[in-house]
Amino acid sequence: MQASDRFNINSQLEHLQAKYVGTGHADLNRFEWAVNIQRDSYASYIGHYPILGYFALAENESIGRERYNFMQKMLLPCGLPPEREED
Amino acid sequence: MYLYSLTLQRATGVVCAVNGSFVGGKTQEIVVARGKTLELLRPDEAGRIQILHSVEVFGAIRSLAQFRLTGSQKDYLVVGSDSGRLVILEYNVAAARFDKVHQETFGKSGCRRIVPGEYLAVDPKGRAVMVAACEKQKLVYVLNRDAAARLTISSPLEAHKSHVICYSVTGIDCGFDNPIFAAVELDYSEADLDPTGQAAADAQKHLTFYELDLGLNHVSRKWSEPVDNGANLLVTVPGGGDGPGGVLVCAENFVIYKNQGHPDVRAVIPRRDDLPAERGVLVVSAATHRQKSLFFFLLQTEYGDIFKVTLDHEGGERVKELKIKYFDTIPVTSAMCVLRTGFLFAASEFGNHALYQFQSIGDGPDVEASSTTLMETEEGFQPVFFQPRPLKNLLRIDQVESLMPIMDMKVTNLFEEETPQVFTLCGRGPRSSLRILRPGLAISEMAVSQLPGTPSAVWTVKKNVNDEFDAYIVVSFTNATLVLSIGETVEEVSDSGFLDTTPSLAVSLLGEDSLMQVHPNGIRHIREDGRINEWKTPGKKTIVKVGSNRQQVVIALSGGELIYFEMDITGQLMEVEKHEMPGDVACLDIAPVPEGRQRSRFLAVGSYDNTIRILSLDPDDCMQILSVQSVSSPPESLLLLEVKASTGGEDGADHPASVFLNAGLQNGVLFRTVVDMVTGQLSDTRSRFLGLKPPKLFSAMVRGRQAMLCLSSRPWLGYIHQGRFLLTPLSYETLEYASSFSSDQCAEGVVAVAGEALRVFTIERLGETFNETVIPLRYTPRKFVLVPKKKHLVIIESDQGAFTAQEREENKKVFFEATGIGENGTANNGDQMENGGGDNDEEKDPLSDEQYGYPKAVSDKWVSCIRVLDPRTGETTSILELQDNEAAFSVCTVNFHDKEHGTLLAVGTAKGLQFLPRKSLIGGFIHIYRFIDDGKGLELLHKTQVDGVPLALCQFQGRLLAGIGPVLRLYELGKKRLLRKCENKLFPNTIMSIHTYRDRIYVGDIQESFHYCKYRRDENQLYVFADDSVPRWLTAAHHIDFDTVAGADKFGNIFFARLPQDVSDEIEEDPTGGKIKWEQGKLNGAPNKVEEIVQFHIGDVVTCLQKASLIPGGGECLIYGTVMGSLGAMLPFTSREDVDFFSHLEMHIRQEHPPLCGRDHMAYRSAYFPVKDVIDGDLCEQFPSLTPDLQRKIADELDRTPGEILKKLEDIRNKII
């Protein structure tokens, strides 16, 4: 990489994308966006104990089980990814 | 509008807990995180949990870990929070607070996906700490100490891996080799790209070891191996010389021992045999016990069963067998701590926490599951079953109350007491309860005995100053005195030397060992050897008031003459001085003799001319008036209270010695002022209204310190708690006269007279704001209403995935018959459908649901009931169990305008409700009930089917408004069913609350905040004229005034939405009521928008809101209750001056005393929306805990003295509670 490339917008974006999970890009599709939002949400539920408690009350499960369920859902939060279109 | 936010009851639930030796030395303490507060607890000798320290950190604590540097005697605490920082705390015993040793910033604040803080792991030798996030990031800090033996921390070493979800981390015990951390990880990168789903199905969790190379200062992935896909928790196995090392991987249904270079040792977790087959068994909390030669693990499943796991290993190397033995069953915990003293602290997820004592450690050879008996079949591993049984190894010895979760709350004065009561619905499933909270301290009554006649006063007296306990209780009547001696029993005696034919004015111990009785005609001095000296009043004068301590006596004669006596060296009471007061003396008091002094210097005299004088008792200026204070009303009673100087006792903060003059005035006000120790000048006055009767003041002992009892129309206790003076009401009836009491049954009690009875009681749980009365319920309570006039409560309860009471009874019967547990148990069960609240319950009921939880049914099965309860007696007068999978969700009382039936009860229910995979239901219903038997029972009038869950019901203009999904509908009462009159289907999601005021309807949507509606009777139309522009996920709502509603959202914010005044006026003046505008529409929303005028982040899910006043005559505030079991209040300020003062105080404390766990205070309170017009009282109340220098600095900035600031803080608190 040349010195001049280091500061252009693309490499800065790449840097952000590498550092912060979920930083978008121009070709982001609906599915990727949704997956990212969902994972953020689940992580937030897990981090806020009162919210976990609130869900646990609604589903009548233990808080520990609720946390585990949310972790599990982080694998495929929006179902299977769509088929890629050939371009 | 500016509000002052104050937490009244700190969160009572527990997020996580660790034990260790934080004070240093041999004792063990427990640190619990209760969401945003950190508390240090310790069980005392009697096995009661005591709170040593409690601090609000203004951030969400997510994880805790404790570590100790080798050779040190004291543990440090590591806190993982939402601050994006790693904080290491040390408990400072001298100052009784946590000191921040290190604070290392590593990321953004907030609970984020890739910012560490969720998990913490420490190396067992205290050499390194790992802090990890849910995804990707893991940081390792090296801990060491410098030349001065201070803890040092390195810069972070990264152990990140992208696209990896982390389930658990722990530190491996590998002696003094390089520290290793283990993590359960799942890589999702391929699953995100594979549309066939093959990669997702193949996704495999791995157990990864991260090694910290202390030489290279580098972290590397040392080893990674696939692990069971249900893995969720890691537990360190002791290593080094003590055990085989490695980890226990807790997975759904299995416990697996794993280590590098070691084959897996797997055993199956036993299942309850009534568990539905599709449900797994997950371990939710774990505790390790280790001694020199022995270690074992206690793992608790999500159903509450604890299993003891032991490892059979050869010479600390190879693990031959992993055994799982059923230990006991206790309510599901969020954390367990095994203490060296043989206690188990169990922090419950919901409901009261408990302290158990180990009776045995489950040593028997009969293990339920073992790795050697593991059977693998074609369908997988064969399950093992067991039956829960009553506690065998544990014995509960103490409980810590927890309100978590508060489901609903109402503040009302149902019992017509002096202050309103707070009715809260708490708990879940079998541990649910209605708790009646009263502001004040709880009392435990030891004895009540009737006396012949109405006593006017009571004293207790010791025979000798060195005695530990009191010898006599002396009761005075209008014309006689009764002497009771305290021994094994309390009985009347006549050989005490006291004169019993006259009333008494004072009885006390004088000098070392002589007694004094003051009666209207003289002073009777009873020497230890039985000699009696009488001093008679001159002429026809009688004694009216007395003040005395062990050396000095001052009497006031009728007419206003004061005579001062002092004890001389021979033990004689000698008259020293006389003084003529201008008029009759209303009251007088002498402070106790200060330690190491001959006499007390001050005499306080109250007169009927509304003045209090301080007189000197020193020989050189005896009976000189030192200062005069005028008060608003004649004083009734005086008490000089000396606060001893202390530096960092049990209760913490340093305070210099000072003397307070307390005066109870005839208008019911307690007046407090500081007496200068040298000059006797009075300064810094505070007053507080206590009740309708003039307060009488008495000295008492609380935790070995002098405290003050004030008896007005209710009793109060003034005492020092954690460095602060608190004046708190006692939850007890009106008392006439009181005295402290000490015997071998009760060390610090109070004896009091009221009516014709003598009462002995002790004061419990000091420092608490509320005391509670618990009434057990059957299922998770959802909502309740007060039935006006009848003063009954109607509570709706429902539980998902549970069996009805009848089914459970039958199952139990079958079980008891099968196992042959005593007939007794079965017989008791027949009528024991209710969950007992008490401790004796377990003995009666061998398998109480409260302890064991309800058996799980399939998840679409619902049970529910409607209960009518008389809160005075705590008795359920009627209970209707709903049939056929129907569950109640909303309730309200309604008066239809045809008046035929009077007040009716409407209950909204859903049948066969299912949330997953998609919300679905068979049908919703609105039941209409009529009250029968004078409001004690219910009778179904009719039942109307609707097309969704009616989540909100409300009476409106003699009709019933129902929110059914997105539809707001108006019903009229019909003969056979409710009749639809009008509806509006245009609400965005689901209506969760409806409030009405005049012709306006305030509708709360579950996702889209408030909508203001109007009903036009002439056109029979419901329309929305204003809504909110912010998508709020409402959890609670309350109507404040015509234009304003208060709401709380799921993320822990409270806000006020107000319709701007001009818009409101325009709508009211418009003959069409703004309907034309509504018809035009505006971007799919209402034509007008409300403004959010108040924003505040509570940091806890608020479940209920109410506008109420907790003290008589106090201003109304907004009271809220939360999931974590805390109660708080928001009080509107009445003056601009106060707003300025408190906002400046808040600003200075923010700067000078940042929160303990590293979260910026302003950022925390603005976590979702910038905080607006709310001053955080919890932060302001940290002012007294600052160092005196800092207090002075802040006070100088505010142009005040620290005393004035403390007074302001006290004043505003007294306006709320």
From TrEMBL, chain A:
A GO cellular-component term linked to this record: precatalytic spliceosome
Single Gene Ontology BP annotation: mRNA splicing, via spliceosome
Highest taxon, organism lineage: Eukaryota
Family: Belongs to the SF3B5 family.
Name the record gives this protein: Splicing factor subunit
Xref: InterPro entries: SF3b5/RDS3-10, Splicing_factor_3B_subunit_5
One Pfam family linked to the record: SF3b10
UniProtKB/TrEMBL annotation, chain B:
A molecular-function term among this protein's GO annotations: nucleic acid binding
Keywords of the record: mRNA processing, mRNA splicing, Nucleus, Spliceosome
Keyword Zinc: no
InterPro entries per the UniProt record, alphabetical: Beta-prop_RSE1/DDB1/CPSF1_1st, Beta-prop_RSE1/DDB1/CPSF1_2nd, Quinoprotein_ADH-like_sf, RSE1/DDB1/CFT1, RSE1/DDB1/CPSF1_C, WD40/YVTN_repeat-like_dom_sf
An individual GO BP term: mRNA processing
Superkingdom of this protein's organism: Eukaryota
Domain RSE1/DDB1/CPSF1 first beta-propeller span(s) in chain numbering: 14-368
Domain RSE1/DDB1/CPSF1 second beta-propeller residue range list: 443-763
One cellular component (GO) term of this entry: spliceosomal complex
Stretches assigned to the RSE1/DDB1/CPSF1 C-terminal domain: 864-1183
Start and end residues of each stretch annotated as Disordered: 819-851
Main location: nucleus
Protein's cellular compartments: Nucleus
Record carries keyword Nucleus: yes
Family assignment from sequence similarity: Belongs to the RSE1 family. Belongs to the DDB1 family.
Protein name (Swiss-Prot/TrEMBL): DNA damage-binding protein 1
Natural source organism: Spirodela intermedia (Intermediate duckweed)
